[in-house]
Every structure is written in structure tokens, then in C-alpha cells.
């Protein structure tokens, strides 16, 4: 036995009449489609449900599985505490998934009460689980559950986790249904919860078309800027679910798509019909990833190469002396510099200096790269095995100049420094999610521990950004 069903379900709480009341009827197509999907899971003979949610506790260094013997949840957060479920965990499948994932190089974190206390996370089922379970139970599906979080990994690693689910099902001889919980763009209309972006609709159209044609490679290679601008939360769970169908012939059908509240909701059923060796994609996806990384490394600027080499040598235990790097003439001066690390589009560390603290820009970058990777208090230190997944950028700061007010700021061109007494905060220019000078100043104040209504001195600066 193996994976006998794959599904995609949205998770709008408003779709529950107990939450949305009459508004729930505006997503009637989705509600009916989710009931249909539940009936199909029943007909598949599935014995266990693996449910992947983007709103379960997410870790930067692993995919989490809630291993509580019984998991509970309710919709009290949305005013409907009477909607509550208790699900029985399937320990055999959960443990086997962990083993198979580790074999594929995907760390799995077993979430239990001890880890919950240590990290302050909540083991209750989140709404990304509760909404799909509501409709599955209405359709008569009450299966043992393996609740999984999405991972913040590269797409082929997310796909690998799905492959691990399939291998675990085969090892145990279990019939498993895998459902990805996720909404599409949250930016379809001007009144959408995450604001409006015209590319939101483009993203949703592409996802629907790619699922209909079961184009896994197309999904994995979606333009990163398009995905970021869409403001979605479903792509990673979908890719994880698709990995569970690796090497299988699949009938893929989109049962519904709509977006009445500015958020895209898609329901899709992916039903295996047999084996198909041409759809064994993991090895080719891994090879494509290696080639893409090699191409990116070849294009890295000198300062980015310095940052990468400095951090790599430090993590390997033989840190290269920052004074030993060649110093091109353009970087011989002193200047403040910030090093930013991103992992699969998500910030992984960013630390810098607002004024020169070293002999030249090259040394500034070498020191700050190590700080960004190991001392940013917002993140755990970067591990050596993460380095290949990191993209690095370096911002070299020009001297700041005082300004009289926010009307002299341009978030794309200028960074900002706010000062009040001994407190100061800095925000770089051209950052995702910072669209107005007022936002820019507010975030800089927050970083400095300055109250939103406290007056500050403002300075602006330009940067030269290196990739």
C-alpha cells in the first residue's frame, strides 16, 4: 500500500457557518468542493490522514510533526469555540515519516509537551487544520492523523518530505491520504487582508493551471517575485503534498476556485491511478537545484563572495583572517555595511554597522557576515549544512545626512536612521513590505525601542547593494 489520495484544501474560517454566518454562503463553491473531496477520500480507502498546515508551528531548521497522542483544537479564536475536534495521532506512521525524511536529509522535529514548554508554542490544532477537518468530518472522514507543519526549505527539499511520506506508507503497508491546507493569493482586491497587488490574480491563475496539468516542475520553478507579491500561504504545503505522489500516475482535478474576500481558495483532488516511472522527479529536481546554485554562485559579486567565504570558514572552524582578503581600490575606504542572509526567500540573519569600524569595506563585510550568521538575536545561528541554501546581499552605506521630516524620504532610494537620546534604529532602503516613509520610520523606531509617538531626529542615507 502507499499514498492513495492527495488533496488541496483552503482554510478560511469564514467558510464555517458557525463563524461566518450568512457570509459563509459566499464561498459555497469551496464548501461543496471540500465535501466532495472528503467523499473521495472515503472512497479511496485511506486509513490515515497526513495534514500539512502553513499555520502550525514553523521552524527554520526542520519540519515539525505534532506527536501528541491526541491533538485537539477549536475555533474559539474566531468566536465559535463549540466547533472543536479531538484527533488520534498515528505514531507508527509519524515515526516512520521521520526516519524516511532523515534518510533524505530533511530534519524532522517531534513536537511534544516538553518542546512546547521550552519554546512557548501551542500544540492545539490551528485553523489551517481545523477548517479542512471540519469539512472532512462532515463528509464522514475521521481518520488517525499525522499533523505536519510546512517547512522553510527549498522546493526540492519540500518535495523530498512528501517522498518520505510515500516511502513511510509503503514501508508500513498503509493506505494514506495527504492533504495540503493552504490559501492562494491574499492580495486579489483592494480590500484584501494583505492589501492589493495586481500579480495576485496572475499567481492564482498559474497555480490553478499548473495543478490541472500536474506540472510539478512548473510549480517548483515559479518566479520568486511573483510568489512574494501574491502573499500566498499554500505553495509550500502543496509542493510537500505533491512529493507524496512522486512516481505515480495521477488524475488531477480542480474542484473549485474562487476569491470573494480578496483571498484565493482552491480545492483540488489528486487521485493516483497506478505507477508512472516518468513521474519520478526527485533526482532531476535535486540536480536542477545544484545547477541553479552553481549559476548563482558564479554571478556573486566580490563582496558577497567575501561574506560567504568568511561565514563558511568560520563555521568550518578555520576562520579566514579578514585582513588577508584582497582589497580592490573601490573598497579600500572605510564604510558601514550590512550583510543580509536569506533562506528560500525568508530572512535568516541581518547585521551591520552604520559607520566604519574596520580598516576597509572588505574587512567590514567579513566581520559582519559572521555576525549576521551567528549573532542575530532573532534567529538561531546558521548551521554549516544551511550554507548552500543561503542567498547573500551586502549593502554598503553612504554617509548619512540629517533631514527635517518624512517627506524627504523615499523608501526605494533612502534608508533611515532614527535617534532619540542614546537610542537609535536603522532601516535599509527597498525592503519587502515597507511601502511608505511612515512605515519605514515606524519600524526603525520599533527596532530602537522608541515609542511610536516619541519625537526623533531623522537621517537618511543611500546604499550600494551587491548581490
UniProtKB/TrEMBL annotation:
CDD domains in alphabetical order: ED_3B_N_AMMECR1 (cd07951)
Protein origin, superkingdom: Bacteria
SUPFAM superfamilies per UniProt: AMMECR1-like (SSF143447), LigB-like (SSF53213)
Family annotation (Gene3D superfamilies): Hypothetical protein ph0010, domain 1, Hypothetical protein ph0010, domain 2, LigB-like
GO MF term set: ferrous iron binding; oxidoreductase activity, acting on single donors with incorporation of molecular oxygen, incorporation of two atoms of oxygen
Domain AMMECR1 residues, every copy: 298-467
Pfam families given in the database record: AMMECR1 (PF01871), LigB (PF02900)
Protein's recorded name: AMMECR1 domain protein
Organism of derivation: Desulfotomaculum nigrificans (strain DSM 14880 / VKM B-2319 / CO-1-SRB) (Desulfotomaculum carboxydivorans)
Amino acid at each position: 500500500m502507499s499514498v492513495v489520495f492527495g488533496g488541496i484544501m483552503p482554510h478560511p474560517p469564514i467558510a464555517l457557518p458557525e463563524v461566518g454566518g450568512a457570509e459563509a454562503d459566499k464561498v459555497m463553491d469551496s464548501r461543496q468542493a471540500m465535501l466532495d473531496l472528503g467523499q473521495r477520500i472515503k472512497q479511496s480507502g485511506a486509513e490515515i490522514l497526513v495534514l500539512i498546515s502553513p499555520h502550525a508551528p514553523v521552524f527554520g531548521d526542520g519540519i515539525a510533526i505534532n506527536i501528541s497522542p491526541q491533538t485537539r483544537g477549536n475555533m474559539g479564536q474566531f468566536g465559535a469555540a463549540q466547533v472543536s475536534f479531538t484527533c488520534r495521532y498515528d505514531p507508527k506512521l509519524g515515526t516512520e515519516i521521520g526516519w524516511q525524511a532523515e534518510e533524505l536529509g530533511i530534519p524532522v522535529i517531534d513536537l511534544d509537551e516538553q518542546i512546547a514548554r521550552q519554546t512557548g508554542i501551542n500544540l492545539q490544532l490551528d485553523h489551517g487544520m481545523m477548517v479542512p477537518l471540519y469539512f472532512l468530518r462532515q463528509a464522514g472522514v475521521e481518520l488517525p492523523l499525522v499533523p505536519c507543519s510546512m517547512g522553510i526549505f527549498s522546493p526540492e527539499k519540500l518535495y523530498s518530505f512528501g517522498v518520505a511520506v510515500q516511502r513511510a506508507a509503503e514501508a508500513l503497508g498503509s493506505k494514506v491520504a495527504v492533504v495540503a491546507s493552504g490559501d492562494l493569493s491574499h492580495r486579489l482586491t483592494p480590500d484584501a487582508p494583505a492589501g492589493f497587488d495586481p500579480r495576485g490574480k496572475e499567481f492564482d491563475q498559474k497555480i490553478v493551471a499548473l495543478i490541472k496539468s500536474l506540472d510539478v516542475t512548473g510549480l517548483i520553478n515559479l518566479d520568486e517575485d511573483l510568489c512574494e507579491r501574491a502573499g500566498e500561504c499554500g505553495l509550500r504545503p502543496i509542493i510537500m503534498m505533491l512529493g507524496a505522489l512522486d512516481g505515480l500516475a495521477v488524475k488531477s482535478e480542480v474542484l473549485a476556485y474562487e476569491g470573494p474576500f480578496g483571498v484565493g481558495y482552491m480545492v483540488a483532488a489528486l487521485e493516483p491511478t497506478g505507477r508512472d516511472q516518468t513521474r519520478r522527479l526527485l533526482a532531476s529536481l535535486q540536480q536542477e537545484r545544484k545547477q541553479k546554485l552553481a549559476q548563482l554562485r558564479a554571478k556573486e559579486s566580490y563582496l558577497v563572495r567575501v561574506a560567504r567565504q568568511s561565514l563558511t570558514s568560520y563555521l568550518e572552524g578555520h576562520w579566514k583572517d579578514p585582513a588577508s582578503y584582497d582589497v580592490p581600490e573601490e573598497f579600500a575606504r572605510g564604510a558601514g555595511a550590512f550583510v543580509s542572509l536569506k533562506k528560500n526567500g525568508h530572512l535568516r540573519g541581518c547585521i551591520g554597522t552604520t559607520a566604519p569600524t574596520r580598516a576597509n569595506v572588505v574587512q567590514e563585510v567579513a566581520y559582519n557576515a559572521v555576525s549576521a550568521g551567528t549573532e542575530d538575536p532573532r534567529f538561531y545561528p546558521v548551521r554549516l549544512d544551511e550554507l548552500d541554501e543561503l542567498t547573500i546581499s551586502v549593502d554598503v552605506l553612504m554617509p548619512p545626512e540629517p533631514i527635517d521630516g518624512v517627506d524627504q524620504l523615499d523608501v526605494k532610494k533612502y534608508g533611515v536612521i532614527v535617534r532619540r537620546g542614546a537610542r537609535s534604529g536603522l532601516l535599509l532602503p527597498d525592503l519587502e513590505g515597507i511601502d511608505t516613509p511612515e512605515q519605514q520610520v515606524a519600524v526603525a523606531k520599533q527596532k530602537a525601542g522608541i515609542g511610536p509617538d516619541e519625537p526623533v531626529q531623522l537621517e537618511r542615507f543611500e546604499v550600494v547593494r551587491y548581490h
